[in-house]
Amino acid sequence: MTREELASLQADFVASLDESSAPAILPQGWFDATSADDLQRFSRYRSALWQHQERSLALTYPVIKALVGDEFFRTLAHAYGQRYPSRQADLKTFGAQLAAFLNDYLAVHAYPYFADVAALEWSVQCAAFAADAVALSAGELAALSSSQLDAQRLTLHPGCSLLHSDWPCAALWTAHVTLDQAFPDLQAKHRTTLVYRLGWVVKVRELNPCEAAGLICLSRGASLSEALLAAQARFAEANRPSQLVDSAALVTRWLNDALLVTVSV
Putative DNA-binding domain: from which residue to which, for each copy (predicted)? Predict the structure, then answer.
């Protein structure tokens, strides 16, 4: 058998797996088309593949599953698998493109916030498996002189991510995951959500515009002073310019949440 013939056989096999018809259509060259046993074996294999795809997505996207319901989620998982078949042995990476998929999926066009919720859930997945890093402590910060503090570049912990959306994704996620919060009002308004890992627990919270401005600055490798100036500038936009943002409260929260990591030069 030539490489071209093998490639053709493999392509036919994959096409038959993706085929949504019932019963399954046996791929040419692999099985005896008249054999009921071959048809049964292939049907079981195809069904198992779809079930693995659905279960993998359900583990990563429990909120999306809750929003669309079990039956629709099964259809969604199959359609997603056809568009983005798994290319790695590790199934936890299977759902990496679900947010992009939902953004173009006509069946959920009436629910534009689904894609952003999926993006948040993927960030939660990434935070859970992100590389560990030693966060800056209050003691280490206090030991820095003024000149050292201005020179020290900081960034966010590898488990942190900032997401921008016009929908209350953090509140939607919290309402479904913790079950102790009412379903939020779906009013369109720009929001920034922080996803981070504290110890072994992934947390999600919506940021006020001042804190968001500071953390965005830090995500780009700024100094703490630059981040606080960015927070102050955003605070001044929404308040009287003479008022000051509570810098101590911001820094304390960032340290307590283990968000800051020093950048080595």
Answer: 9-102
